[in-house]
TrEMBL record:
Protein's UniProt name: DUF362 domain-containing protein
Annotated Pfam families: DUF362
Domain DUF362: 38-243
Length: 306
């Protein structure tokens, strides 16, 4: 497949998340949300504080931007992989935040068969395909926010592509088939993660890299503090930039080795046409003077050929 036009990843200093969200929102070229039903996929995989999960200030800032953009409705959908989703959302403050912003909350574990769209296994590494929550597949627009993390259970990294796993069913509500057991036991896990993103749309992805995990993850690990937030309409571009940022701080052997665009998640997503296909098609754009040196270092890492 031909590579799409070059994609931008915007980067801004993150001491004020609300200001950063405004700056990124205005630059990212997001289509109009006026009158649209918007679904939000944050990162609430476990009942652990940021950077394991979405920071409350980031969720509040994004919900505010969506509301101000004229969205007809906003729905926060989530399925936690480590813990009970309803409890995680409540304990992390997401339920109260959503309520104050006028957004609904959907606990995906509670959806019946009618709440899921079946994706067949044709051409995929999934034995039976998988189920995507209709709150995402049928939304007028999807906004997601992810964290900067490594993943010690086979994913290698947990960025925007991996965050989308929470939009699919853990089990088939009709048959009980365990999709997550298949995913986490498969040698193709990272390719399977990428394949989900072909069927879950995303109009804008925001990565809160104020802090992150450079080793361990996804719920705990070795902390780093890049103090930036990144955003792109292209999940591949955003994740490639995130890997470059992890490499800058020093990370696991799996993250540090090889060309970034040859990493399983990135390569399979590019093969499926989800975003850019090479580092040459990716532009890093610093939105303030504080981020310029960091962007230069990340660009150098992206351009490395070994």
């Amino acid at each position: 497949m031909a590579s799409p036009a070059a994609s931008e990843v915007y980067i801004v200093e993150a001491s004020d998340r609300d200001h950063a969200a405004k700056a990124l929102w205005s630059e990212a070229g997001l289509p109009s949300l006026d009158g649209k039903a918007v679904a939000v996929k944050a990162n609430f995989n476990s009942d652990d504080p940021f950077p394991a999960t979405t920071h409350p200030e980031m969720l509040e800032a994004l919900l505010g931007r969506i509301r101000d953009a004229g969205a007809r409705s906003v729905l926060l959908g989530e399925r936690s992989g480590m813990g009970k989703t309803a409890a995680v959302l409540k304990n992390r403050g997401a339920v109260d935040l959503a309520g104050r912003a006028g957004a609904e909350v959907a606990v995906l574990d509670d959806l019946g068969p009618e709440g899921w769209e079946a994706v067949p296994p044709d051409g995929l590494h999934w034995e039976r395909g998988f189920l995507v929550a209709r709150v995402f597949s049928e939304a007028d627009a999807v906004i997601q926010t992810c964290c900067l993390k490594t993943h010690r259970f086979g994913g290698h990294v947990s960025l925007s592509l991996k965050n989308t796993v929470g939009a699919v069913a853990a089990r088939d509500p009709a048959t009980g088939y365990n999709y997550m057991a298949e995913l986490h036991s498969s040698p193709h896990q990272r390719r399977m993660v990428a394949e989900i993103n072909r069927f879950v749309p995303c109009d804008l992805a925001v990565m809160d890299a104020t802090e992150g995990f450079s080793k361990g993850g996804p719920e705990r690990g070795e902390r780093i503090a890049p103090n930036v937030i990144l955003a792109s309409t292209d999940r591949i571009a955003l994740d490639a930039a995130g890997i470059a940022l992890l490499r800058l701080y020093g990370s696991t052997p799996e993250v540090m080795g090889g060309r970034i665009f040859e990493a399983d998640q990135i390569a399979r997503a590019a093969e499926l046409g989800i975003g850019v296909r090479s580092a040459e098609d990716l532009r890093l754009v610093a939105l303030d003077s504080e981020s310029k040196d960091l962007v230069l270092d990340m660009r150098r890492i992206l351009d490395e050929t070994v």
